[in-house]
Amino acid sequence: MELWLIGIGTGNPDHLTLQAVKAINGADLILIPRKGEEKADLADLRRAICAEMLTNPRTILSEFDLPVRAAEGDYLNGVADWHDAIAESWRAAIGRHPQAMKVALLIWGDPALYDSSLRIAERLARHVDLSVHVVPGIMSPQALTAAHGVPMNQLGAPFLVTTGRRLRDHGWPDGVDTLLVMLDGECSFQTLKPDGISIWWGAYLGMPQQIVDAGPLAETGPGIVAARKVARARHGWIMDIYLLRRGPGTGMPGQGSAAGAGP
Asked: Tetrapyrrole methylase domain: from which residue to which, for each copy (predicted)?
């Protein structure tokens, strides 16, 4: 069996590459995970992508419920147990369609960046004879910097992609002046001294409900915290990311950085 992990960008069908469209139409079975009522929009977006891009009448769409990660206990052990449970849910969903030899999952962004689908596929391969194929997708850092019209890096300088948890627990890493922060449910930039730091933030990037904001962290940070809270309450979920840059020459926000601007 072939397992195809197809990067679909940040939810906009226009983000799909031609390779992704071909892979979708080459699949015998496309699995659509359900994450509960609060995140029903995510399954709806996958269905919408298939409705727009799928032209192969033989491709089957099959939905399944994803396990929920335990909120208590050690984080890494909890994630490992959760991945085991997801792998089992994949195996059960595939087992309901034994004729399917090419199975696809639509992965937000790119399967290689802060997504566990490849690790879960390794677990599945312990029980199912399969080969794994990856179709790259537009990553949220690309969507963020495109929305704001700013580069990821300063001239000749590195940048670091990290998580809100690491920023909160360990502070600003040494050796870099530009950070791209993902998976941050607590606006961890609030733990930093804001002087000399600029922020470029975006939520629901590429979607109709896209929100972006940018400016000096001291001035812009509180507005981002408030906007994020309102948007999460309205939609039941939020996907966001931000770029932090410190020191002289941080530059002015790009033209796309008005709060509440659309795609």
From this structure: 3-219
34 neighbors 89 (Cβ within 8 angstroms):
no
Q: What is the pLDDT of residues 41-73, one digit of tens each?
A: 778 889 999 999 999 999 999 999 988 887 777
The whole-angstrom separation of Cα 160 and Cα 85 is 31
Burial label for 13, CB within 10 Å (0-12, 13-18, 19+), is middle
Q: What secondary structure letter does DSSP report for 9?
A: B
Q: pTM for this structure? A: 0.85
The CATH number of the structural domain formed by 140-246 is 3.30.950.10
How far apart (Å, rounded) are the C-alpha atoms in residues 154 and 51?
A: 41
Q: Domain 2-135 belongs to what topology?
A: Cobalt-precorrin-4 Transmethylase; domain 1 (3.40.1010)
Nearest CA-CA partner of 132 in 65, 92, 87, 167 = 87
Place of tokens 């939609």: 235
Domain ranges of the chain: 2-135, 140-246
d(CA 258, CA 234): 20
| Distant-in-sequence, close-in-space partners of 102: CB < 8 Å, separation ≥ 6 | 1, 2, 4, 26, 27, 28, 29
138-184 per-position pLDDT tens digit: 999 999 999 999 999 999 999 999 999 999 999 999 999 999 999 99
Using alpha carbons only, give the angle 47, 48, 51 rounded to the nearest 5 degrees.
85
